[in-house]
C-alpha cells in the first residue's frame, strides 16, 4: 500500500531559494527508507514539506491516497507522525506523560485518555523496550533513552507513516545500532518509516531504499547496497568510492 506519494514537488523558501525541484517519490508499507545527502541539500526541508509543516512551492503530496492540501492538521496527525531533531520543550515531563501526548489527535482538547489510548501507549512502551523508564523524568534520561521515548510517542500516535529527522544523531555506536534495528522492526510490523541520516553504512544494513539528494540533481532512488556497489551513491555524496566499500 502506497502511504506517501510525491509528484513534481519543488521545495524551498522563496523563488530565489529553491532547494530541489521535480521530486517524484513513493513510500509503501513495510518499507524503511533512508534520506541521505550533504548538509544543506534540503533533507530537513523535504521532511517538513512532506509533513505539512512547511508549504510546497509546487507539486503534489498524497498521504494514503489523499492530497495533503485537502487534509486538516488533525487528519494529517492521524496519518503521519514526526520526530524532529531537538529535545522537548519541557524536560520535566515524565516518560509516560510525553508518550501520552502522541494520543492528542484522538483524545480531544481535554486530553482525557480512553482505554484504547492507554493500550496504544502501553504497546508503544513495550515495542520500544522502555518499560523500565516509564516513571522517570525526561531530564534523567540519556540521549539514547530519550530518543527511544520520542519514537515511542510517535508509535502511540498510531499512524501508518513515521518520519524521523536524524534519529541517531548524538548517539553512541551501540545506541545508533539499537535505534536503527528498532525502526526496522517497526517498518516490518506494517508501517512505513522514513529517516534522514548521515549514518550511511549502518543505515544501508537496515533500509530497503535510499533517497539520495544532491545539489541540482534529481533524487537518486535505489537499494542501498546496489547504489554503493555501482558508485552512484558516492558520487551523490561526493566521497571516494572506496569509502563505502
UniProtKB/TrEMBL annotation:
Domain named ABC transporter is located at 4-240
| InterPro entries found in the cross-reference section | AAA+_ATPase, ABC_transporter-like_ATP-bd, Metal_Ion_Import_ABC, P-loop_NTPase
Instruction: Establish whether keyword Transmembrane helix is in the entry.
Output: no
Molecular function in Gene Ontology: ATP binding; ATP hydrolysis activity
Say yes or no: keyword ATP-binding present: yes
Keyword vocabulary terms for this entry? ATP-binding, Nucleotide-binding, Transport
Matching PROSITE patterns, A to Z?
ABC_TRANSPORTER_2
Which superkingdom is the protein from? Bacteria
Tell me the Pfam families matching this sequence. ABC_tran
Sorted alphabetically, which CDD domains does this protein's record hold? ABC_Iron-Siderophores_B12_Hemin
Task: Note the PANTHER family from the entry.
Answer: IRON ABC TRANSPORTER, ATP-BINDING PROTEIN, METAL TRANSPORT SYSTEM ATP-BINDING PROTEIN TM_0124-RELATED
* Protein name, per record: Iron complex transport system ATP-binding protein
